[in-house]
């Protein structure tokens, strides 16, 4: 953000409330860009119609070999549990039967806070336009990646005794 969204003045880097922030220098404005992280929900989907395998999906913009969890933004007036069930439905057409919090994980690269859930779901898998492919992986064969949703997958696997 380079300009104030309230008065259009160029923002200045100033020490404010304990750290450097983008602040509007206009005397009558006072805008501060707090740059707080965005809440994002993530789902480890246990596909109940697929013998409990975990659904991983590939975004249409990603390299062919990269698969990850279903994620999406928390919307206004929506609980995180409602958000993750909605994202699972929107992106895979699956209906969440249970939603359980795994944990919270920082994703510094995109300034997000990931709220990760274990979602047990049923239905016919139909991907939306954001996703190019999916695969169903037995839980014992999952390999967590470093950072973000990979940490959630690691914790979920550890809780089930699938890794040390």
UniProtKB/TrEMBL annotation:
Keywords: Hydrolase, Magnesium, Metal-binding. It holds the Pfam family Zn_ribbon_Nudix. Its cofactor is Mg(2+); Zn(2+). GO terms for molecular function: metal ion binding; NADH pyrophosphatase activity. It catalyses: a 5'-end NAD(+)-phospho-ribonucleoside in mRNA + H2O = a 5'-end phospho-adenosine-phospho-ribonucleoside in mRNA + beta-nicotinamide D-ribonucleotide + 2 H(+). GO terms for biological process: NAD+ catabolic process; NADP+ catabolic process. Belongs to the Nudix hydrolase family. NudC subfamily. PANTHER family: NAD-CAPPED RNA HYDROLASE NUDT12, NUDIX HYDROLASE, NUDC SUBFAMILY. This is NADH pyrophosphatase. It comes from Denitratisoma oestradiolicum. The lineage of its organism: Bacteria, Pseudomonadati, Pseudomonadota, Betaproteobacteria, Nitrosomonadales.
